[in-house]
């Protein structure tokens, strides 16, 4: 156990010694605030303009923050991806494995550090986004302390799981650009494409993708086809599968 | 102590390291020589458990690297000086390494002082020159105060002062009873630093012997003779077992396979006057070129 603690301490030190980490950390709540301002204002203006078909009425303020995660997630996602792909880019992964030879332990340490950094970041961003959305919505916002607390925690949980999923992906693919592209396609583009089709099978596939499962888990889906808890389980399964595949590959691949 | 038993690595159908069996002993500097692409770095990576051997095994202190609980405290290695995140400071880089193996943080400042990087410890590694990068890599190798040290081309990019410093460091580490395994393509460097040489070519072991033996084994060790009657002397020398005689100029002979004393006696017995009689010792560079040249020419020369 103490050797795992050492590996985690090393990853923790590495994470905070890079300027890019601080940019990502500042960027996540900043983008969240901006997105919530735009989304909140857009709801308010839709409700008050002359067109009545686009009216959404009173909406949950923390729900706006959940909606903003679709875009905001790419900042922490990139941070988690860089934790491994930057080491492949410089060759530093060999040094990492000299310090911590068991592949699974090295990966687990990175995942733990990503989780420890991104969970509070997600919660804080969710709270900030809710506050900004409340300001932008004004009378069109519905605030509930319980909803806000749940949604903020859910955003933190979602960012951890999707980022660790991406960390596994980055370990498999090694290249920063390749991993970012793949993550973008899987998290953003493919769900939109599949949603556009009318084939029921493809819609089921779309519902099972990590970002769709995450949206249902956070309660951000309008037409959820399964309960929130199932969304959490599906997302966690994606994350576990990604880590498992990454560990298996690391064990067989030359560093 | 590093042990390799039948260590083999193939990438597809290309053989990088072929059936390498050797012991790298403690208390000595062992030079690891070979042309580019001979398999030196691959061998070192296998010792560190980074590359998986196709066959055979590499052990450090009798155990595979991956089985070491706190590996940096037992094996220090400098593989690639550029393998540091350019945005991370030298101190943070070493501190992360130290934490991974429960090495006290004050040791980081100690090794920074040892390699002379204290003044730039807070600077981003990306701004370092190649020589500073090498010093940082050496600091990382020394961090855990390990019994076994491996350096891949440690003097690359160092200025003359730095080269001298590395040479003294290697010697003092070995004098403390540590195992020092250092690869290089600089023969002159090895001649001054190493006690023992391991030479590989095309992944195969060509020589594993003390430096003096490698030089003594070279066919470039020759005796040079000048005499007014070279034909007579050449005929007498040719009768000696193992002798090879070549003419050199009008009155010169170059003789291999016969000790210098014996050449003098034969000249005396034949009544041939000698103008010059001198033993010529091959340089390590020549001995090395001969060893690896053979490996390239014929592909296989096991020893």
From TrEMBL, chain A:
<keyword id="KW-0472">Membrane</keyword>
<feature type="transmembrane region" description="Helical">
    <location>
        <begin position="176"/>
        <end position="194"/>
    </location>
</feature>
<keyword id="KW-1133">Transmembrane helix</keyword>
<feature type="transmembrane region" description="Helical">
    <location>
        <begin position="149"/>
        <end position="169"/>
    </location>
</feature>
<keyword id="KW-0812">Transmembrane</keyword>
<protein>
    <recommendedName>
        <fullName>ABC transporter permease</fullName>
    </recommendedName>
</protein>
<feature type="transmembrane region" description="Helical">
    <location>
        <begin position="226"/>
        <end position="246"/>
    </location>
</feature>
<feature type="transmembrane region" description="Helical">
    <location>
        <begin position="107"/>
        <end position="137"/>
    </location>
</feature>
<feature type="transmembrane region" description="Helical">
    <location>
        <begin position="64"/>
        <end position="86"/>
    </location>
</feature>
<feature type="transmembrane region" description="Helical">
    <location>
        <begin position="21"/>
        <end position="44"/>
    </location>
</feature>
From TrEMBL, chain B:
<feature type="domain" description="ABC transporter">
    <location>
        <begin position="2"/>
        <end position="227"/>
    </location>
</feature>
<dbReference type="InterPro" id="IPR027417">
    <property type="entry name" value="P-loop_NTPase"/>
</dbReference>
<protein>
    <submittedName>
        <fullName>Vitamin B12 import ATP-binding protein BtuD</fullName>
    </submittedName>
</protein>
<dbReference type="InterPro" id="IPR003593">
    <property type="entry name" value="AAA+_ATPase"/>
</dbReference>
<dbReference type="InterPro" id="IPR003439">
    <property type="entry name" value="ABC_transporter-like_ATP-bd"/>
</dbReference>
<dbReference type="GO" id="GO:0016887">
    <property type="term" value="F:ATP hydrolysis activity"/>
</dbReference>
<comment type="similarity">
    <text>Belongs to the ABC transporter superfamily.</text>
</comment>
<keyword id="KW-0067">ATP-binding</keyword>
<keyword id="KW-0547">Nucleotide-binding</keyword>
<keyword id="KW-0813">Transport</keyword>
<dbReference type="GO" id="GO:0005524">
    <property type="term" value="F:ATP binding"/>
</dbReference>
<dbReference type="Pfam" id="PF00005">
    <property type="entry name" value="ABC_tran"/>
</dbReference>
């Amino acid at each position: 156990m103490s050797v795992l603690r050492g590996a985690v301490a090393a990853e923790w030190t590495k994470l905070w010694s890079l300027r890019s980490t601080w940019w990502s950390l500042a960027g996540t709540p900043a983008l969240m605030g901006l997105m919530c301002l735009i989304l909140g204002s857009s709801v308010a203006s839709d409700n008050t303009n002359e067109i009545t078909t686009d009216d959404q009425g009173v909406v949950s303020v923390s729900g706006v923050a959940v909606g903003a995660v679709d875009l905001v997630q790419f900042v922490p996602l990139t941070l988690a991806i860089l934790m491994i792909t930057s080491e492949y880019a410089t060759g530093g992964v060999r040094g990492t494995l000299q310090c911590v030879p068991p592949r699974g332990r090295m990966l687990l340490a990175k995942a733990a550090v990503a989780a420890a950094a991104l969970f509070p970041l997600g919660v804080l961003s969710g709270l900030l986004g809710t506050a900004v959305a409340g300001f932008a919505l004004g009378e069109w916002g519905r605030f509930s302390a319980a909803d806000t607390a749940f949604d903020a925690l859910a955003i933190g949980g979602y960012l951890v799981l999707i980022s660790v999923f991406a960390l596994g992906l980055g370990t498999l693919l090694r290249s920063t650009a390749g991993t970012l592209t793949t993550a973008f396609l899987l998290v953003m583009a493919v769900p939109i494409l599949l949603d556009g089709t009318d084939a029921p099978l493809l819609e089921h596939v779309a519902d099972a993708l990590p970002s769709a499962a995450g949206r249902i888990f956070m309660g951000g889906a309008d037409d959820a086809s399964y309960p929130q808890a199932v969304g959490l389980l599906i997302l966690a399964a994606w994350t576990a599968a990604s880590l498992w595949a990454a560990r298996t590959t690391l064990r067989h691949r030359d560093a | 102590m590093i042990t390799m038993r039948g260590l083999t690595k193939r990438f597809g159908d290309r053989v990088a390291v072929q059936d390498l069996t050797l012991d790298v002993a403690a208390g000595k500097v062992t030079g690891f020589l070979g042309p580019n692409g001979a398999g030196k770095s691959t061998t070192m990576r296998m010792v560190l458990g980074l590359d998986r051997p196709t066959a055979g095994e590499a052990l450090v202190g009798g155990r595979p690297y991956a089985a070491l609980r706190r590996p940096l405290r037992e094996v220090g290695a400098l593989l690639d000086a550029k393998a540091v995140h350019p945005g991370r400071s030298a101190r943070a880089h070493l501190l992360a390494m130290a934490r991974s193996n429960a090495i006290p943080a004050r040791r980081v400042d100690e090794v920074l002082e040892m390699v002379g990087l204290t003044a730039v410890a807070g600077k981003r590694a990306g701004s370092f020159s190649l020589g500073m990068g090498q010093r940082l890599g050496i600091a990382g190798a020394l961090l855990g105060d390990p019994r076994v040290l491996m350096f891949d081309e440690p003097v690359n990019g160092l200025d003359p002062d730095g080269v001298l410093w590395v040479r003294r460091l290697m010697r003092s580490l070995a004098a403390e009873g540590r195992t020092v395994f250092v690869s290089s393509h600089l023969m002159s460097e090895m001649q001054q630093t190493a006690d023992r040489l391991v030479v590989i070519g095309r992944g195969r072991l060509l020589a594993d012997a003390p430096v003096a033996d490698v030089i003594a084994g070279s066919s470039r060790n020759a005796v040079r003779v000048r005499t007014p009657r070279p034909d007579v002397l050449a005929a007498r020398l040719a009768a000696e077992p193992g002798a090879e005689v070549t003419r050199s100029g009008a009155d010169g002979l170059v003789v291999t396979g016969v000790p210098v004393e014996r050449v003098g006696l034969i000249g005396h017995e034949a009544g041939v006057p000698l103008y010059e009689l001198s033993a010529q010792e091959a340089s390590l560079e020549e001995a090395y070129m001969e060893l690896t040249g053979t490996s390239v020419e014929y592909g296989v020369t096991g020893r």
